[in-house]
Amino acid sequence: MKEQMNDSNQAASRKAEGLSRGRICIVTSEHLYANPRAVKEADALAEAGFDVRVVACRYSSWMATHDDELMETRTWRLDRVDWGRETEPALFWWSRIRQNLFRRLARFTLRFGIAEAAAGRVVKELTARAAAEPADLIIGHNLPALPAAVEAADRLGCAAGFDAEDLHSAMWLERNGSGLDDRVALFLEQRYLPRCIHLTSAAPLISREYEKRDGRPVACVLNVFPLSMQPPAPAESGGCGGALRLYWFSQTIGRDRGLEDVVDAMARLRGLHIELHLRGAWQPGYEESIRGRVAAAGLPAGCLQAHAPAPPDQMAHLAAEFDVGLALEHAVSHNRDICLTNKIFTYLLAGNAVVATATQGQRDLCTRLGSSVAVFQPGDVTTLAGCLRYWHDDRAALFAARQVAWKLGRTEYNWDVEKAKWISLVETSLQHAREGHA
C-alpha cells in the first residue's frame, strides 16, 4: 500500500512539474510506428519535465500493435483518432468519402477549408482531439497535422509550431510535374506556417528553403537516433572469405529507390561474393521485377534476401548485422534532392560503412563523414561497382570505415546531441508565447 501511495505521489509530482514547465501537444496524422521522429521529440520533452500528450492516428491493426508495445515504456500520453476499417468503419468510410469530395472541389478552389479537408482524411478529427485538452504549445508533424495544430492552438489560445521532415510542397516527381497534392501543400504552407511560433526541419537544405519562403530562421534538428539504440562497436571480420553484406531498409521496397543501380553493380562483380539485404514491405509487383533483374544479370537468386519490417527502435541493431549501409536517394523530386532520411544516420549509429548517392543533401553531409562513406552519382554503376569491389577486397579498410562510422554515430550524429537543440527551441518558443500573452 505504501509503495502504491509513493508511486501515486511521484506521478502527481511529475504531473505538477510538467504543468509548470509547459503542456506540449504533438500532432501527427500517422501511427507512432510510422513517425519515429515524433516519438523521439515526445520522449525528449517528457524527460525534460514537460507534460506531453501526442495525438496520433490508428488505421492499421499491425502498426497499432507496435504502437501499444512502444507505449509500454513511455511516460507521456497517447490520444488516438481511430479511423480503422475494422475498428471504426463509420469514420473509415465517411473520411474516405469526405476527402474524395473535397479533393474534387480542390480542383476549382482551395479556400473555405477545402485544402485542409483534401490534405488528409481526418484533419477535422485531429484538430478536435488536439483542442480537447489545454496546452501551451501544439506542434504539428507532417502536412495534414499542420492545419490541425494551428487551428487547435487558435481554439485554445496557445502557440503552434511545426516540424518539417520534408519540403512538403516540393515532393512532386519532376518527370510528372506538380499536381493537386502539391498545390494543396503549397497553399497550406503559405496559410499556416506564418502562424507558427517556430519552424524546425530535418535537414539543413530544407531549413534553407523554408527560410527563403518564410523570412525567418528555421532550426535544423537532424533525424538521428538515441545512443541507447547503438549496438556495440563493430568486430573485425577478418579475411576476404565471407560475403560483403549490403543492407537497405524502408517501410516500402519499391521503384525509384536506387536498388536497380545496386543490382547492376553486382552484375559487374559476378565473381565476388556480395549479398543485397532489403528490409520492408514490397510494393505490389516490385519483388518480381527486382528478382527478374537479378536473374537476367546472371546473379544467383540467393544474393538478394528480403527481411520483414521491424520497429524503428530496432533498426540500428538490425543494421549492425551487415557490412555496408546503402543510402540511395535519387533526385526524383526537389525534396528528395535536399532531404536527409534516417537511413544514413541509422547506418552511422550501427557502425556500417556507407555508400551514398550524391544528392545535394547527402553530398553536403558526406563531406563530414571521412573514410566511413563512399559517394557516387545516381546511375553511375561503374563508380558504385568500384566502391563495392574496394570494400569486398580490402576487409581491413572495410573494418576501419565501420569504426569511423560507429565513432561518428557515438560522438556527433545521435539524438542525445540533437535533442538539446530541440528542448532549447521549445523552451524559447514557450517563453516567447508567454511574453506575447503577458
Summarize the structure.
The chain is built from 18 helices and 13 strands. It is an alpha/beta fold and 438 residues long. Helix 2 crosses helix 18 (415-437), helix 6 packs parallel to helix 7 (145-156) and helix 14 packs across helix 17.
What do these coordinates show?
With 438 residues, the protein is of the alpha/beta class. The chain has 18 helices and 13 strands. It has helices spanning 2-21, 36-47, 61-71, 89-105, 114-119, 123-130, 145-156, 180-192, 204-214, 259-267, 286-296, 315-319, 334-338, 342-350, 360-366, 381-393, 395-411, 415-437, and strands spanning 23-28, 51-58, 77-82, 137-141, 159-164, 198-201, 219-220, 244-253, 274-282, 304-307, 324-327, 353-357, 373-376. A 7-stranded parallel β-sheet has the order 3-2-1-4-5-6-7, with helices on both faces. α8 links the parallel β5 and β6. The longest helix has 23 residues, at 415-437. 45% of the residues are buried.
List the main descriptive attributes of the protein structure presented here:
single chain; 438 residues; alpha/beta; 7-stranded parallel β-sheet; 6-stranded parallel β-sheet; 18 helices; globular
